[in-house]
Design brief:
This protein has 256 residues and is mainly α. It has 13 helices and no strands.
């Protein structure tokens, strides 16, 4: 069921992007109307949108002379909407969306109701090192046999997600019979972990490679990232073990 929700999530992302784009194109008048109503309700003075914008607490020298209308509409309203659209595009581009939708076709919920051979064949193209063009010819027939077998075998009728499917295939030894399908299942299960690990590494890099360490080398950066990302593991190692390890790396004049 959770895997099937991926498709609904992708649809919601598309709807969200459409609504944001609609707001960007036609939502300013509605937005400024709601803001004006709020100002009037709470007795807040409404600035004249045709006046020159004067930021509070900043010197006017060197600032571009723009009206309040331009500042609030372009620099604030449109900029915030654009940031949201860009964030959604970065996290759910067309390749990622297609990959997730193809993954959902392996979901066993409701007797594999979302199974789609064409999309699963498309999914294999994301892994050219694992599925050669020759292997894909036989893989299509293996998929047809696989889905026919799964829908007949009662042991697979109550499965709800891809994780349960992979375990049941292993328990019934059918992972050997449908080896390529099982390989694709493993690749799909590894994808969220790999993606999260990459995002976690890039997030950690902003803490490690800061202004003070701007010229840090690749090897030292890699070592620092490992210790930072796996800090829970390293905290379980005693200081004495670290000192002994460092001491034994090569002979030193003094004992640590």
């Amino acid at each position: 069921m959770r895997d099937q929700d991926i498709v609904n999530t992708m649809l919601l992302v598309d709807l969200c992007k459409e609504q944001l784009q609609k707001m960007r194109n036609d939502g300013w008048e509605t937005f400024i109307g709601k803001v004006s109503t709020f100002y009037v309700k709470h007795n807040i003075q409404i600035p004249d949108l045709n006046d020159v914008y004067a930021p509070l607490g900043r010197k006017k020298r060197g600032l571009a002379k723009v009206t309040n209308l331009h500042h609030f509409q372009v620099d604030v309203f449109l900029s915030v909407v654009d940031i949201q659209l860009q964030e959604l595009d970065n996290r759910s581009n067309e390749v990622n969306k297609e990959l997730l939708i193809c993954m959902a076709c392996l979901c066993p919920f409701d007797r594999f109701s979302s199974f789609d051979t064409a999309k699963l064949l498309r999914l294999t193209t994301f892994y050219p090192a694992e599925f050669s063009s020759v292997e894909l010819i036989g893989f299509e027939y293996q998929l047809e046999n696989f889905i026919a077998d799964m829908r007949k075998d009662e042991r697979f009728w109550t499965l709800k997600n891809i994780e349960e499917l992979s375990m049941k295939l292993f328990e019934t030894k059918k992972h050997v019979l449908y080896s390529k399908v099982y390989l694709l299942l493993k690749l799909v299960l590894l994808l969220p972990v790999a993606t999260a690990s990459v995002e976690r590494a890039f997030s950690s890099m902003t803490f490690i490679k800061n202004k003070v360490r701007n010229s840090i080398g690749d090897q030292l950066l890699n070592d620092c990232l490992v210790t930072y990302i796996e800090k829970d593991l390293f905290l379980s190692i005693s200081d004495d073990d670290i000192i002994n390890r460092f001491q034994n790396m090569r002979s030193r004049r003094e004992r640590l």
